[in-house]
Design a protein that fits this description.
- The protein is of the alpha+beta class.
- The protein has 1 helix and 4 strands, in the order ββββα.
- The chain has one helix spanning 64-76, and strands at 7-18, 21-31, 39-48, 53-61.
- Strand 1 and strand 2 (21-31) form a beta hairpin.
- The chain is elongated, with a radius of gyration of 15 Å.
Length: 83
């Protein structure tokens, strides 16, 4: 089995709040043709309006609980503040 056997499935999407700003997120799941070797990922994107900087974050893990916790910690700890 190689990476060409993987199937990608979108499983969620919605609004993301980063540093008090709105953004978007999407969740993906991968598995091989037999449903094994499953893993997931979260992708988020947002813009810091003061600097007009656009950012994105992609996190992946075979453990969905750890994935959600880590993604939330990264986005909740991010700040758009400028000096």
């Amino acid at each position: 089995h190689g990476w060409t056997d993987l199937k990608f499935v979108s499983w969620d999407e919605g609004v993301l709040n980063v540093s008090g700003r709105g953004g978007r997120f999407a969740g993906i799941r991968t598995a091989d043709a037999s449903g094994g070797n499953a893993a997931g990922g979260l992708i988020g994107a947002w813009t810091c309006p003061d600097s007009n900087t656009q950012l994105s974050l992609t996190a992946t893990s075979p453990d969905s609980t750890a994935l959600q916790i880590r993604f939330d910690r990264l986005t909740s700890g991010f700040s758009c503040a400028t000096k």
